[in-house]
Fold these 2 entries.
Entry 1:
Amino acid sequence: MNEFLLILISTVLVNNFVLVQFLGLCPFMGVSNKLETAMGMSLATTFVLTLASVCSYLVYRYLLLPFDITWLRTISFILVIAVVVQFTEMVVHKTSPLLHKLLGIFLPLITTNCAVLGVALLNIQKQNNFIESIAYGFGAAAGFSMALVLFSALRERIAVADVPVTFRGAAIGMVTAGLMSLAFMGFTGLVRV
Amino acid sequence: MALIHLSSPHVSKANATDRVMRLVLLATLPALLALTFFFGWGSLIQLCLAATSALLFEAVCLRLRKRPILFFLRDGSALVTAILLALAIPPFAPWWVVVIGSFTAIVIAKHLYGGLGNNPFNPAMVAYALLLISFPVEMTQWNAPFVLIGDSWKALASFPESLMIIFSGVNHHLIDAYTGATPLEVLKHRGGMTTEEVWRNVPVLSDGVFAWYGISAAWLMGGVFLIYRKVITWHAPFAMISILFLLSSLFYAGDPSNFADPFVHIGVGATMMCAFFIATDPVSCATSNRGKIVFGIGVGALIYIIRTWGSFPDAAAFAILLMNLAAPFIDHYTQPRSYGHRRANRGIGGGR
Amino acid sequence: MNPELRKITLDGLWHNNPALVQLLGLCPLLAVTGSVVNAIGLGIATTVVLVGSNLTVSLFRHQVPEAVRLPIFVMIIAAFVTAIELLMQALTYELFLILGIFIPLIVTNCAIMGRADAFASRNPVPAAVVDGLMMGIGFSIVLILLGAMREALGAGTLFSNMHLLFGETARSWQITLVENYRGFLFAALPPGAFVGMGLLIALKNLIDAKLKQRIEKSKSTQTDPVASKRVRITG
Amino acid sequence: MTTIVTAVLILLLLALVFGLILGFAAVRFRVEGDPIVEQIDALLPQTQCGQCGYPGCRPYAEAISNGDAINKCPPGGQSTIEALADLLDREVVPLDSEHGEEQPKTVAYIREDECIGCTKCIQACPVDAILGAAKQMHTVIVSECTGCDLCVEPCPVDCIDMLPLPVTPTNWKWPAPVSDPNLILTDRGRGHLLQGGSQ
Amino acid sequence: MTRLYSFHGGVHPPENKRQSLGAPIRQAPLPARLILPLQQHIGKPATPLVAVGDTVLKGQKIAEPSGHVSAAIHAPSSGSITYIGLQPVPHASGLESPCIVIETDGQEQWIERQPLTDYQQLDKQALIRHIRNAGIAGLGGAGFPTDIKLNLGRDHIVNTLIINAAECEPYITADDALMRERPDEILSGIEIIAHLLQPSHILIGIEDNKPNAIKALRDAIRARKLPIDLVVVPTRYPSGGEKQLIQLLTGIEVASGSIPADVGIVCQNVGTAAAIYRAVILGEPLISRIVTLTGFALGHRQNYEVLIGTPFSVLLESAEVDRSRMFRLVMGGPMMGISIEDDRIPVIKTTNCIIAATREEMPPSPPAQPCIRCGMCEQVCPASLLPQQLFWFAKGREFDKARHHNLFDCIECGACAYVCPSNIPLVQHYRFAKSEIRNEEAEQLKAAQARERFEARQARLAREEQEKEQRRKERAEAAAREQARKKAEAEQADAGEQDPEAELKKLKTAASIARTKLKKARDALKNAQEKGLDGTDKLEATVLQLEQSAQAAEQAWQNATGVQH
Amino acid sequence: MQELLNSIRRNTLGISLFAAVTAGLIAITQVLTQDRIAANQEAHQARILYEILPQSLDPNLHLQTLSLPAPELGMHEPIRVFQSIVDNQVQAVILPVTAHDGYSGDIHLLVGIWRDGRVAGVRVVSHRETPGLGDKIEVEKSDWIHSFDDLRWWGEQDQRWNVRKDGGEFDQFTGATITPRAVVRRVADTLAYFEQRKAQLLTPVTRTATSETERGHPNES
Ligand SMILES: Cc1cc2nc3c(=O)[nH]c(=O)nc-3n(C[C@H](O)[C@H](O)[C@H](O)COP(=O)(O)O)c2cc1C
Ligand SMILES: Cc1cc2nc3c(=O)[nH]c(=O)nc-3n(C[C@H](O)[C@H](O)[C@H](O)COP(=O)(O)O)c2cc1C
Ligand SMILES: Cc1cc2nc3c(=O)[nH]c(=O)nc-3n(C[C@H](O)[C@H](O)[C@H](O)COP(=O)(O)O)c2cc1C
Ligand SMILES: Cc1cc2nc3c(=O)[nH]c(=O)nc-3n(C[C@H](O)[C@H](O)[C@H](O)CO)c2cc1C
Ligand code: SF4
Ligand code: SF4
Ligand code: SF4
Ligand code: SF4
Ligand code: FES
C-alpha cells in the first residue's frame, strides 16, 4: 500500500509528468484553453494511459522478453497504443459525438502524446511489475490531469487579463507553465528516488 | 453640465487603491523594525534597493506598454511587492540578488500578465522561489541575530560594513562570522538528534529563537492592523495558521522526537508574514470568502508537508505559488450562493 | 524556386513552424535543450525521421486503408526512430545516454505524426520530402536557439561538449562567455525551459507584428480594390 | 537471421490481431451524419447573404465542419468568429477582409414612390421579407429583413436603400465604459486593432 | 414587534436628507407646457386617445394601456394638445421618445371625478379596473403597473403585504414628507390594497432615520386601530430594494427569476398607496406626485407636489437654481439615479427626486484603476454576487461566464461601485454586459426566424419549380395540339391592338431603367476617374452609348404620352 | 456481413504488410549495429572504472566481478565488486556504493581501494544534487573528489573523516554541507567495510563475467 502511495506521490507531485518530466506537453498546451475541454481530455488521457501501461507491460513481458527482441519495444508499444487509441476514438465518436468534437484533433493525437509511450518505456526502465505498472500509469495520468485542469482554469483567468499583445496566447501560456513548474519544484524531495 | 451616459452611482466612498497599498506598507513597519533590530542594517538596505529597482522596472514596463507612468507608479503596488521581497530574503544577500528578484517580480510575474491586478501568481513569491532555486547559496545564508553573536546590537555589522557586504561581497570572513542556519533549517537537517536535543543543544534555537519570535510578533501586529482597517479579511490567515497548528500538533503529539513542535511552525520562519501579507494578496488569492478559507487551508497544509518531508526548510513561497495556481480552480467551486438561489453555482458551466 | 515549394519552405521555417506556431513536439524541445549539443543531436535525429517518414507515407499514401491509417503511420515512424536509435547507440553512444528516453520518444513527437497525417498523406513525394526537411529544420532551429539561450544563461558557455557529436576535435569549440560564471540555475531547470520558450514565441509574435505593420504600410499606398468572393444565392 | 525472422513474425502476429480488431470496429462503430454542422449553423447569423462564398449559411457551416476557415462571415463579425472558435476549439482570427467587412446592422427600405413593381427584389430576398405583387409598389417587413442587401443590386431603378436601424430608448444598449484613453489602454482593445489590420 | 432579519452586504453612504426636510411640501407652479411620455412605466407604451388640436380637461384620460402590462396616462391639467411626437424623456440613453404635449390654459378645469367611496361593496374586478383606469404605476422604483400586482388573487395566495417606506437612498425625502404630512392617505390606500389582496399580515418597513415619519404613521395607525406592524429597520442601503426589504422583514428570499408574489408577498411603495387612495376615494387619477428637489446648486431644497409632465427646468427655476454651480443633474438618488444633460425633460410617474449637485458634492469620478480583486465589492453586494468576477467577465466579454455567475441577479444597486477603491464603474460594466447578452439573444432569435423563413422559401421554390416543370410539360403537349390546329386554320388576321395603358407603362419602365443604368455607369466612370484607374475610355464609351439609349427611351415614352393626351 | 469481412480483410492485410516490412528493417539494422553497440556499452561502463584504476594495470578489470552482500552499507542486494588482478593477486578493488543521505536523492559512487587500504580514487556515477551546489562532487566540476586519494581510515575514532564543519578534514562547499557530508561518511563506511571483508575481497575471482551477461550498469540495482 505504502509503495503505491509513494508511486502516486512521486508521479503526481514530485516528478509530475508534464511539469518536471516534460512528457505530454502538446496536449497540455493545446487543450487547456477551456476548463471543460481540459476535463474531457484528462479523462480520455487517464483512460488511455492506464490502458497503455497495462498493454505494453503484457506485450513486453510475454512477447518481447521471451523472444529476446526487446529492441522492438518502441515499435510494438506504439502499435499497441495506436490501436487502443484508435479503438477508443471510434467508440467515442459513435457514442458521444459532442465529446468527440470537443477533443477535436486531440483524440487521435493522444497516440502521439509522449506521456503514453513515455509511461510504457519508463515502466521498463524502472522494472516495474504488473501492479506497479498500473499504479505508475495511473499516477502519471493523474499528474497530467491535475496539471492540465489547474492550468486551464488559470488560462481562463489569464484570458480576461490585460496581457500585452506580443505575449497573448501561447507565449504567456508557456511562461505560466514555467511558473507552475517553478511552484512544483517545491515538492522536490518529498519522495527520494 | 454633466455628461450623458454617466452610470450610477454618482457618489463613491473616499477610498483608493493607493490608500490600501499605503496601509499595507505601513503595516510592514513593525516587521521592518524588528528585522533591523535583530539582524542589523541589512534589511533596510535591501529594502531601499528593492524599492528603487522595482519602481525602475515598473516604469520601464509601463513605458514599453505605453501606459501613463506616474499614474500607475503612484498606486504603490510595486512598492508593496518590493518590500515583501526585500524582507523575505536574507538581509546580507548580495545586491544583485535583490535586483534580479525585483526584475522577476515586476517584469515577469507582473507585467507580462498585464500589470497590477492581472497577475495570477504572487510576484514577490515568484521572485523569491526563483532566487531560491537559482542562488541557493546566497539565499540560505541568513546571518545570526545579535543575541547569538554578542550581547548587544553593536555586535552586528555597522552600516558601512553592511553596505560593503551587500555591494562588494568580498568580505567573506565578515559573512562567515555572521551567517548561520535558521531554526527551520537546523531542525530539518538535524543529523540524528531528536527535536528536544536540537532545542537544547543548538544555539539558534536555545538562545536565538526569541529573535524569530519577535519578528513573527511584529508581522502579527501588522496583520491585525490590516484586519482592523478592513484591508484584509480574517479568512485566509486564520485558516492557514489553524491548519498549520493542527497538523504540527498532531504529528508532534504522535512522535515528539522526530517532528518539530507547533511553536516552531507558527512562530519561526515566514509563517506570520505569509499568513497576513502574502496569503492575503488579493490579486493572486481566491476570490470569495469561502475560497479564501480553502486557499488558506491549502497554504497551511502545503507549508507543513514541504517543511516536514520536502527539501525546502521554509516552504512558504512554494506553498503560496502552488495555491496561486489552484486559485482559479478553487474559484470555480467556491462561488457563494447568490440571493434567490437555492444552491450556489459550482463547478464549470462557463462553457455553455 | 517553385512557388509551391517556396511556400512549403516558408511555412516550415516560419509561418507554420512546428515548435513556435503549431506548438508540437514540445516535450523533447523543452526537455533536452539544456545545451546546444543536445539540441543539435535531437534536431538532426528528428529531421531525419521527419524526412524519412514523410517520404514513406507519401509513397504509400494510396495504399493505406483508412481505418488503420494511424497505426501504419506510427509504425513507419517507429521504424525510422528505432533505426536512428540503434545507429546513435552505435555511433554517438554518450550523446544517446544524455538524450535518453527522448530518442525513442521521437516516435510520439506530435510534429512528425502531424506532418505525416496532415501533409504527407495528401501530397506527392517531392512536396512531402521538402515539407519534412523544412519542418525538421524549423524545429531544429528552435531547438538550437533555446539550447543556446539556456546554456548561455545557465552555464555561461556555448557549444560545450560538442565532441559528443562531432568527435574529439570539437572539444575546443566551447566558448566561455563569462569566466567563473556562478550559473543561473533557473535557466537550466524545467521552469527556465518553459519561460525561455515563452520568450521565443513572443519574439516571433513581435517580429510578425512588425512585418505586418510594414506590409500594411506599403499596402496602404496602393489601391487595389479587394475582389469580393461573394456568391449570389438568389435570383 | 533467426532474429530477423522472429522479429518479423512477432510483429506480424500483433498486427494481425490489431487489424482484426480495427477492421471490425471500422464497420461496427461507423458514424453517419455530422451533428456538429447543426451547432455551427446555429451560430451563424442566418443572414443568408452569401458573402462567405457559399450559397447561404448552412453550406458554409458544412464547409467549416470540413475544415474551412471560420472567419469568412462578415455579418456575424468578430463575435461569431469567437463563438465558432470556442465551439471548435480553434484560434480566434480576425475577419477575412476578402469577404467584406463588419458593418453596422441595416435594414432595407424601398422608396415606394419610385418603385415600379418589377418583383425583382422579391425574388432576390432569401427570407421573403418583401411584400408586394407584380406592378404594385413593394415594402420591406422591417422585423424580418436580415439586412443582407441582396435586393439592392437587382432593383432596376435603384430605389432600395440600406439604412441603419434607428436607436430608440427600447433598443438602446449601454455602452461599455470607456475610461480616459490616456490612462487605461487595454492591450485587449489594441490587440484587436493590431490583428485586425487597417480597420 | 416582529422579528427583524438581515440581508448580506449593504453600505451606509452619507444621508444628506436633512437639507430637503426643512419645509413642508410645496405646490409646484403650473408650467406652460406639460410633456407626457407615452412610456412612464414598465411594459408596452400607452396608445394616445387624442389628436393634435384637441382640448383636454384635467384628469382626462389621454392615452390608454396597450396590452396587459401597460398603464393609462391622464392630462395633469386642462389645455390643448399641441404636439404628439418625439421629445427628450428621462431615460439613461438621453434619447427621445413619443410624448403628448399639452399647452396648459391655467384653468385647471377638472373633468368630472368618479370616486368609489363604497369600494368595499363593489366587485373586486371593478375596483381593479378603476385603479387601472387611474393609470397607477409603482411610484417607488420601476413603475410596474399597480393593477397587475393587485390582481394576483386568482393565481397567487398573498399572505403578506409589505409597504415599502424605507426610502434608503441618500438625498431622497419624498416618501418621508408624504408620511409626515399625509399618513392618513397612505393608510387609507393600504386599506384598499388590503381589501383587494386580503393578506393575513401587513408590514410597513421604514428606516430608523425618519423618526418624524415613524411617529406620524404610528399615531395614525393607533388612531385607526389598524392591524399593521410598523417595523423600523436599521439604515443601510439598499434596505428599500424590494427583495432586500422582504428578506429583512420576513427572512424569505425571493427565488431568482420569480416575483415576490410567488412566495405570497406583495410589496408596494407608500406613494403608490397614497395614489390608490386618491384614485379610489377622491376619484383622481395619477397626475401628480411628490418630488424632492435637492442638491447644493438649489436655493430652496424641499419637496414639491409636482404635476406629471412638468419639465425639470420649471422646477429648477422655482427652486432658484444657480446654474453656474450646477455640475451634475441627477434624476433619482445618487446611487441608482440617472444623470440628465437636458433639463427640458419632464417629471414622470417614477421621478422621486431631482438632485442639482455642485461639483464638490458629486465630483467627477477619478480615472479607474485596475481591479485588484480586493473583495470590498463582494462584502457589500446585497445579492451575494461576486462583483469583481462579473466585472472581469464583462470586461473580457466572457458573457457566458458572467451569466453563470448570476449576472442577472444583480439589482444594479451600485453598492459595489460605491466602495470600489479602484473607482471602477462596475454597474455600467454590468449594464453593458446585460445589454449585450439580451442583444445576442434577440439576434439569435432573429437568426432562427430567418433560417426558418429561408428554409420555407427554399421549400417553396423547390415546390414551384416542380409545379412549373409539370405545367411546362402540359403546355408542351397543349402547344403541339395548338400547332396542329393552327396549321389547319390557314391564314388569319393579326392580333388586335395592344392595350395602350400597358404599353405606356412598359415604356415608362424602360425609360426609368435606362436612366438608372446611365446613372450607375456615370457613377462608375466618376469613381474610376477619381481613382485614376485605367480602362476609363471604355467606360466613357459605355456611358455615351447609354446616354443615347436613355434618350431614345425617354423620347419614346414622351411620344407615347403625347399620343395619348 | 460481407462488408465486415471485407473491412477486416483489407485492414488486416494492410497493417500486417507494413508490420512485416518495418519489423524486418529494424531487425536488419539491429543485426548490423549489434556488435558495435555492445562494444560501446562495455566501454562506457569501463570508462569510469579505468579512471580510478589505470587500464594499464589490468585491462580486464571490468570483467572480473564478485558479488558480496553489504548490509553494512545499507544495500539490500549484494554489490558487485570489481577486482584489478595483477599476477593473480588482487591489487585493488572497486566497490559500487550508494549514499542515501544526500540533499535530494541517492548518490551513486564507485570507491576504489588499494589492497593496503589506501583510497585509490572515488567517482560519482550519478546523483541528483543541486547543480551549482551539490554537484561539485563531480570530477568535471571540481577536484574536491580527489581529496580522498591515498587517504586511509584509522577506525571509528578517526575524526578526520568528517567535513570541516563537523571537525574533520574535508572541505564542505559554500552553502552545501549535506552533500559532502554524505559522501565522506559513505566513503568512510566503505573503507570500514573493506577492512572487515578484506579476505573475501582480495581473493581473486576467475573471470565470471562475459560481456554478454553483464549488460547491466554497475550501479543499476
Ligand atoms: C419584467 C417584469 C415582470 C413582472 N411581472 C410581474 C407579474 O407578473 N406580477 C407581479 O405581481 N409583479 C410583476 N413584476 C413586478 C415586480 O415584482 C416588482 O414589484 C416591480 O418590478 C417593482 O420592483 P422594483 O422597483 O424593485 O424594481 C414584474 C416586474 C418586472 C420588471
Ligand atoms: C436598490 C433599490 C433600492 C430601492 N429603494 C427603494 C426605497 O427606498 N423605497 C421604495 O419605495 N422603493 C425602493 N426600491 C424599489 C422597490 O424595489 C420596489 O420596486 C417598490 O417598493 C415596489 O413598489 P411600487 O410598485 O409601489 O413602486 C428600490 C429598488 C432597488 C433596486
Ligand atoms: C534549492 C536549494 C538546493 C540546495 N541544494 C543543496 C545540495 O545539493 N547540497 C547541499 O549540501 N546543500 C544544498 N542546499 C543547502 C541546504 O539547504 C543547507 O543550507 C546547507 O546544506 C546547510 O549548509 P550549512 O550547514 O553550510 O549552512 C540547498 C538549498 C537550497 C535552498
Ligand atoms: C493585503 C495585500 C497583500 C499583498 N501582498 C502582496 C504579496 O504578497 N506580494 C506581492 O507581490 N504583492 C502584494 N500586494 C500588492 C499587490 O497586490 C501586488 O503588487 C499585485 O500582486 C501586483 O499585481 C499586496 C497587496 C495587498 C493589499
Ligand atoms: S456570410 Fe454569414 S450570413 Fe452571409 S451567407 Fe455566409 S454565413 Fe450566412
Ligand atoms: S429585404 Fe433585402 S436586405 Fe432585407 S432580407 Fe430581403 S433581400 Fe435582404
Ligand atoms: S472593489 Fe473594485 S478593486 Fe476591489 S475587487 Fe471589487 S471591483 Fe475589484
Ligand atoms: S450593483 Fe449588482 S453586483 Fe453591485 S452590489 Fe449591487 S447587486 Fe451586487
Ligand atoms: S511532443 Fe510530447 S506530447 Fe507532443
Entry 2:
Amino acid sequence: MSPGGEKAARRTRNRMTDDVIATRARALAGALAESGFARLRVRDGETEIELRRAPRTSPAAVAIALLSADPDRAAERPPDRAEVVSSDVVGIVRLMRPAIAEGQELEGDREVAYVETLGIRNPVRSRGAGRVSAVFVTDGQPVEYGQPLFTIER
Amino acid sequence: MSPGGEKAARRTRNRMTDDVIATRARALAGALAESGFARLRVRDGETEIELRRAPRTSPAAVAIALLSADPDRAAERPPDRAEVVSSDVVGIVRLMRPAIAEGQELEGDREVAYVETLGIRNPVRSRGAGRVSAVFVTDGQPVEYGQPLFTIER
Amino acid sequence: MFKKVLIANRGEIALRINRACHELGIATVAIFSDADRQSLHVRHADEAFCVGPGPVARSYLNIPNIISAALISGCDAIHPGYGFLAENARFAEIAADHGLTFIGPKPSVIAAMGDKATAKRIMHEAGVPTTPGSDIVASADEALAVAEKIGFPVLLKATAGGGGKGMRGVATAAELPTAFATAQAEAEASFKDGRMYVEKLLVNPRHIEVQVIADEHGGVAHLGERDCSVQKPSHQKLIEEASAPALDPNLRDRLHAVAVKATRAVGYTNAGTLEFLVAGDDFYFMEMNTRIQVEHPVTELIYGVDLVKEQIRIAAGEPLGFTQDDLHPHGHAIEVRVNAEDPDNNFSPAAGTLTTVVFPGGPGIRVDTHVYGGAVVPPFYDSLLAKIVAVGRSRESAILRMERALGETRIEGVKTTVEFCREVLANEEFRAGGIGVGWLPAFLTRRAAVVS
Amino acid sequence: MFKKVLIANRGEIALRINRACHELGIATVAIFSDADRQSLHVRHADEAFCVGPGPVARSYLNIPNIISAALISGCDAIHPGYGFLAENARFAEIAADHGLTFIGPKPSVIAAMGDKATAKRIMHEAGVPTTPGSDIVASADEALAVAEKIGFPVLLKATAGGGGKGMRGVATAAELPTAFATAQAEAEASFKDGRMYVEKLLVNPRHIEVQVIADEHGGVAHLGERDCSVQKPSHQKLIEEASAPALDPNLRDRLHAVAVKATRAVGYTNAGTLEFLVAGDDFYFMEMNTRIQVEHPVTELIYGVDLVKEQIRIAAGEPLGFTQDDLHPHGHAIEVRVNAEDPDNNFSPAAGTLTTVVFPGGPGIRVDTHVYGGAVVPPFYDSLLAKIVAVGRSRESAILRMERALGETRIEGVKTTVEFCREVLANEEFRAGGIGVGWLPAFLTRRAAVVS
C-alpha cells in the first residue's frame, strides 16, 4: 500500500504492485471527486480498483478501497462530517505514542503524528476534538503530498 | 461542386476547393444521418459547410447545402416521401433530352439520365411516376458511387 | 513528375502513399467504400471518391469505378499499394490503356511472377536456387509420383495461391490424395484457379526476403534483407526485422547477389521483393512480390530510403537516386503488426469501435496507422490497425525500444496483437535470433498448454 | 547502471526520460503536481509521487519533497530534464548529499555556467570568442562608460537572466539609464539577482549552438550544430534544425572545434550545449546550457545517437560508447514546437482542454508529446504541447515532410502554433536558409501589417 519502500515497483506485465495500485488509486480518487459519480471501478490485468465516494464529503474524503489488496476495506465509508487530515509533504509518517487508532476520541488540538522529510519533522495535528473514524497509514509508511492520513469525525 | 474534372483540387492552405467541399459534405451527410442531430455546421479556414436534416427522411435524403458555394440552397429541403435516386457507379452524368428539371412531372418508369463509366452507359431510371423535387447534378458532371442525382416525390 | 495520383487502396498503406505524394508535391485522390467514409486515408487526401459499398468486390476491387475516378479527377498515375489490385496485371493494363501510369512493374512481369509455377521456372532458368519439385500437376496421382521422386515431406501449392490458401503440407503418400483434393478445392474457391504444383517441404526454414528496386534505365539495387520468420499458423507475418539476425555474412551476400541477378533477369522495374526459404546454408526462391510490402518500413529505417517515393519517381521515368555503393544500412529495425485479432482464439479477426487509441512516440519509433480514438473497424477488410516500427543501433536496443513502445500503446474496443507480441519479444529463443517459420506455431501450442 | 531513476520534471521531457530509462531496463519514478495527475508522464512511469499543488514553487521546484520521493522509493539517481531544477547547482548538491546521482555535470560547473558573466569570463580565458563587453557593472553610469567604449548598440543583460528576462537592447546613450533600471528591476523580480553586465549588440546574428557530450574519463565529442534562429520576439525558440543551413564549412569546423575545446577547459561532463551568435564569419560565445535541450531530437535524428540514454550511461560512470570518428550526420532534421499559444496575439499562452488531438506519423516523423485527446493543459506550466520532428535526406525533403506532417496534425481546444509554423516553413527567406534571430520578429510585423 505504500508508494515506495522496499517493495518498490518493478516494471511488470499487466499486474500492478501495491505501490502502483496506491498511486493509481489516489489518482482515480481525484478523478472520481471531479466526476460527480458515486462509484468508479477500474480493471487492469489482474488488478481491480474500486472507489466509492463517501456521502457529502470533500474530494479528499473519497474512501479508497483496494479490492485486490484488502477486500474488507471496500465496505468502509467515512461517516458524515468526517474531516480528512492529509500529508502536506512527501516523507515517512511517524505516529506519536500512544498511536492513533480508529474509534479513539481526541480532545483538543494535539500532534498525533509527524511526517519526516529529509530529517525534518513536519507535525500533523488533530486540529480540534473529534473521534478518529479511520486511520489510513501505519507507522513508518511513506506518504506523498495530499495523501490522506486519518479521518476525524467532529 | 463536382468531385473532379478540370477544377481538380490542389493542396491548399485552409481553403477548400469545390471538389473537396463536395467530398466533405457527402462525408458529413453520412455522419449527420447517423448522429440523429438535425443540423451540422463545420467551419474550416474560410469555408463553412452546413448540413440540415430533412424532416423524416432516409439517410440518403439528407439535403446538402454548401453555404460557401451557393447560399440559397441552404434553405432547400426535399419534401416528405421524397425518394433519392443516386448513382451506383463512378462516372460522368449525362441527362437525357429534354433534361430533367425541378417541378417536372414524370410518368411511369423512364431513363432520365445515364452515367458514363469508361465508355459504358449506366442508365438511371425514374422507377415510376412522381414529381421531380430536386436535381442535384448538371449534364456532364462527375459523380461518385452513392451520389444523389435527383429526388422524386411520389 | 506526376501532377495527381489516385491511391487505389485503403488503411495505413493508403496514408503511406498519400504522405509520399504530398512530400513530392503531388496531389492525391483517395478512393473509399461506404464503410470507410470516416477513415483517415479519406481525410488526408486532396480529393476522395466513394467507389462502392463495403464488400471489397464492389469497391476496392471495382476496376471500372476506380479507373473512372482516376480519369474524372484528372490523375496521371495510380498507386495500387499492397493487396487488392496491386498484383492484378489486368488492372495495370487497363490503367495503361486509359493513359494512366501504373506505379509498379510492367503487366507482363506482374503476370509472370503472379503465377507461382511460372515464376519458379523463370527463376530456375535464371540460375536462382528453387526448391525441388514439379511444374503444374494434373492430378493427385501425378503429384504422388513427383512426391515419391523428391521425397516426403512435400508441399502441395496452388499456383495462384497466397496467404496460406490452397497450400497443404503432406508427410506421407497415404495423406496425399485427400490433401490434394482439399487444397485444390480451396484454390478454386479462393482464386478460381485450381492448378496445383508440388514442392519439397523444408522443415522449419527461415523466411528471409530481399528488397530490390530497379528503374527503367537499367539501374538495379538491393536494400538488404528482412527476416519475416515470425508467422502465424496461417503463414501471415506478425513481426519483421531488418537486417536478419544470426545470418551468416556469406549467405547474406549470396542472397543479395542472387536477388539482383533475378531482378535483372526478369526485366523487373520498380520496387519488389524476392522471398526465400533459408535452411542451413541453402536458400530457395519462394516467390517474388511485385509491389511494396507491408513490412517495407524496417528497410526504410535502416537504409534511410523512402521506398514509396522511389516507386513514384521510378514510375515517372526518373533514374534511381542512388547506386548500390551509396546504400549502407545503419542499425537494426523491427516491426510489430498491430492487428484487430484475438491471439487467444486463433487470431480470429475482430470488428468494432476503437474506444481508446494511444500510440507510442519518442526516439526511434515510427507508427503507420489509419485509426484513431473513435474509429470504427469494419468487418470487410484485413485486420491490420497499425504498424509500430522501432529502430536502434543494435538488435537488442531495437527490441528494448519496441518493448517500451508496446508498453505505451493502449488500444481498447477490440482485441489486438499488442500484448501477444510483447510475449514474443520477451521470449529467449526469439531474442537469440534465427528462429524458423515453425517457431511461432510451436510457441502457440506450448502457450495454449500452459493456459489450459 | 542505476536501478531506479527519479524524473524531476513533467510534460514531454519527463516522458522522454522515462523512455530512455525503460529502454535501459531502469525503473522510473515520476513526480507530479495536483494539476498533472492525469498526465501521460505519470501514467507511463513505474511509480509516481504527488509532490505538491499546481504552482511550480510548491511542486516541481519543491526540493525537499522531490529528494524525499527519490529516497523513499529507493532511487539511486535523479534526471532533472530541462527547466525547473535542471540548472540548479544547489539541487544537484543536495541530491549528492543524499547519495543520489544527479544526471548532469558537476554542481560547480552548473554554478559557473549558470552565472552568465562568470561563464563568459571563463570561456574568454579558454580562448573562446566572446562578444566585446564588460564584467558586472555596478550602476547605469558604469554601463554607459562600457557602452561608449565598445560602441552602440549594446545589450544590457542580467547575469542570472534567461528567457529574455532582464535583457534590453540599447541603441543610444540617452536610452541607457531607463533601460538599465527596468532590466535590473525585472531581473531582481524574476531571479532575485539584479547584477547586470553590458555586451556589444550584434545586428540580426544567427543563433547556432553546438551539442557536446563528455564522459567522466576524459572522453569528449561534439554532435554537430543546431540552428535555432527562428525565435519569437521573447527570444524563445520556435523552429530548430540540424545541421545549420547555409553555413560556411570552415566556420562550422571552427565552431565544432571551439566547442570541444571549451568543454574540456571547463571540465564538463554529461550532455551540454554551447550557444553562439554568428555574424558573418565571426562567432561569439553566448552561454552554455548544462542540461539536455528541448531541441535535442534534431541532433539525435541525424547522428543516430540517443542523447538521453548517453546522459544516463555517463552519469553511471560508463565511458562514451563512441569516439568523434564514429559520429557522422546523415540527412537533415527539423523540429517544430507545438505550443498552446496564440500566434496572432503575441504568442500568449492558452490553457484548456484538448478536444481533438491527432499527431502525424509515417516515415521520417518523430513526435514527442505528453498530451492526448481530452487532456487538460493547466495554466501553471510552459506552453509546449508537442515537438514534431522530421528527418529527410536533404533540408528540402525534411521541410516538405514537415509540411505534410503539420498538415496531418489536428489539435483543437486551445490555439496552437501549428498553422503559424506552416506559414514560416512556406516562406521563401526561411527556405533559402541562413536567416538571423531578427527574422521572425520582422516577419511578424509584416504579417500583422497585412492582416490589419
